[in-house]
Amino acid sequence: MSEFEYVIEAGMFRDRSYQIGTRADPNLDAAADPSQEASWAVILFYEQEDGERIEVARVDNTEHDEGVIHIDRLYREEQADRKDFDIDVTSVYEAEKYISEDWQHYARQHWENYE
């Protein structure tokens, strides 16, 4: 898993610390400039006791047949639609705000589906 440019604390849910990590390629400056081609992702995750990161939700700009910027709802069951292209996000910083505003919802859904 690639390293994050930075990580912020989202908060605690069910005695588990959730964080939001932002990564960008080639770097965050390029990701913030729409005139440059850069890939980025903002990821809500928690770390297990063994250090493994468990991703819960991710907003990224990886291109798919359906569109570009989207949220991967990794808390959904395998057979459920996990990608949503109908989000109001146009930049890496908007993606961070988007994840930050609803992190508890994503954490709760992950808990209900996998715990």
What report would you give on this structure?
Strands 1-2-3-4-5-6 form a 6-stranded antiparallel β-sheet. It is built from 2 helices and 6 strands. It is of the alpha+beta class and 115 residues long. The chain is globular, with a radius of gyration of 14 Å. Helices cover 24% and strands 36% of the residues. β3 and β4 (53-60) form a beta hairpin. The model has no long low-confidence stretch (mean pLDDT 85).
Topology:
Elements: E1 6-13, E2 16-25, H1 28-32, E3 39-47, E4 53-60, E5 70-73, E6 83-84, H2 92-114
Antiparallel strand pairs: 1-2, 2-3, 3-4, 4-5, 5-6
Largest beta sheet: what is the strand line-up?
Answer: 1-2-3-4-5-6
Helix count, DSSP H or I runs of 4 or more residues: 2
SSE string, helices as H and strands as E = EEHEEEEH
- The portion of residues assigned to helices is 10-25%
Quote the beta fraction. Answer: 35-45%
Radius of gyration (Å): 14 Å
**Low-confidence parts, pLDDT < 50 over ≥5 residues?**
none
N- to C-terminal distance: 23 Å
The structure class reads: alpha+beta
Count of strand segments: 6
Shape: globular
Mean pLDDT across the residues is 85
The description of the largest β-sheet is:
6 strands, antiparallel
What is this structure, in a nutshell?
With 115 residues, the protein is α+β, with helices and mostly antiparallel strands. The chain has two helices and six strands; from the N terminus they run ββαββββα.
